[in-house]
Amino acid sequence: MGIISRGFQGRRRGDDERLPPGQYLTEDFPVLSAGPTPRVPLDRWEFTIDTEGGQVHRWNWQELRALPSETPTVDIHCVTTWSKLDTRWQGVSLDVLFEDVETAAEYALVHSYGGYTTNLPLEDLLDGKAWIAYRYDGEELEPRHGGPARLLVPHLYFWKSAKWVRGIRLLNEDWPGFWETAGYHDYGDPWREQRYEGD
Ligand SMILES: Nc1nc2c(c(=O)[nH]1)N[C@H]1C(S)=C(S)[C@@H](COP(=O)(O)O)O[C@H]1N2
Ligand SMILES: [Mo]
After folding, report:
1. What is the pLDDT of residues 8-42, one digit of tens each?
2. Which of 1, 24, 71, 162 is the most exposed place for a label (fewest CB within 10 A)?
3. Region annotation Disordered: residue ranges (predicted)?
C-alpha cells in the first residue's frame, strides 16, 4: 500500500509534461548549500535594493512581513537534475518591493548573508515571476532552506533562488554571480537546458 500511494503521488497525470528535459521528479526537498548556513537574528535582518544611481531602499524584518504577501504554488528545478512539483510558499512579490524603485538598469545581482551571489536580468524578477519567500509548506522557512527569507524565481534553475537573501543590486552591466563565475549558464532556463556556459 505504501508503494502504491507513493507511486501515485510521484506520478500524477500530466507530471511528465511539467518536467524539463534531463530532470527527474523527487518528493524530498534536498538541501544544496555551497557553505554553512548563516544565522541572521531577525532584529538585525534587512533586505535592500540598491539602484544603479546609488539610491538604497531598505526593509527590516517587520516591514517585510507587513507587506502584502502571496502564496505561490510552483515547480522548482535544480541543475543537479531533481525537480519538485507543486511546492507551496508564502512571500512578497518583487513587484511590491520594486513599486517605488526608479531604475533604468537591466541587470540584477542578488546577494545573500554568507556571501553567495547570483545574477539575472531585472525583468526576470518582475511581473509576478519572483518572490522574497519566508514560509514553505505552511511553516516558517527553515534555515537550511534559506530562512528567514530567500529569493524564489521558479522559472529559472534553482541556483538563482538565493537562500538567506540580503539584497539586490541593480546594474547597467551583467555581473556573473557565484555559480555563473564557476562555469554555470548565465541565464539558466531549465526548459532550454541551460546548465553550463555555452549550453
Ligand atoms: N545563499 C545560497 N543560496 C543558494 C545556494 C547556496 O549555496 N547559497 N544554493 C543554490 C542551489 S544550487 C540550489 S539547487 C538551491 C537549493 O535550495 P534548497 O537547499 O532549499 O533545496 O538554492 C540555491 N540558493
Ligand atoms: Mo542547484
Report:
1. 555 565 778 999 999 999 999 999 999 999 999 99
2. 1
3. 1-21
Between the CA of 79 and the centroid of ligand 2 the distance, in Å, is 5
Q: For position 16, what pLDDT does the model report? A: 83
What is the rounded CA–CA span in Å between residue 8 and residue 12?
6
Ligand nearest to the CA of 37: 1
* Residue nearest to ligand 1 atom 22, measured at CA: 159
pTM: 0.94
Q: Domain spans of the chain?
A: 45-192
Given this model, what pLDDT does residue 185 score?
A: 98
Q: Would you list the DSSP string of 166-190?
A: EEEEEESS----HHHHTTB-SS--G
Pocket test for ligand 1, best of 159, 179, 184 (most atoms within 8 A of CB): 159
Residue 158 Cα to ligand 1 midpoint, Å, equals 7
Which CATH class for the 45-192 domain? alpha beta
Percent pLDDT > 70 in the chain is: 93
Residue 74's beta-bridge partner residues?
A: 87
Ligand 1 nearest-atom number relative to CA 116 = 1
